[in-house]
User: What shape does this take?
Amino acid sequence: MDQKKVIDLLNRILEAELAGAVRYTHYSFMVFGYNRIPIVSWMRSQAAEGMAHANKAGELITHLGAHPSLGIGSLLETHQHDMRQILLEALEMEHKTLALYQDLLKEVQDHSVLLEEYAREAIVQESMHIGEVDKMLRKPGDITISPEAQDLQ
Assistant: This one.
């Protein structure tokens, strides 16, 4: 196992999860309309989960004897606060984070059960988030995957 590469991936995951927590928190401020309360609640739970994922990544970095990054992932402000646009941005962010966990799994597979299980669990969770966002992008009654989710698969 290339420990330097694993630590780099874990730091990138840490930064991505921190950015996700900030983004979901920001998005929660920008929700208006009849469905505000459940959507804000969902977004804030996503922010809290992002912080939990960041904590786990940081703990694994120090477990490996390295220094966690103090950086944060991309926080581009699009000023697009339409719910559909927010969800599309969230979907893109979730896909990028999923890719980091998939890269980590490839790097640690058959080398570290601890890191392998961590990556697998995170891949399941990120995949579930992608499914949730995709379902929110669909029109009521539409069972097929949204075109936006298909583009990002």
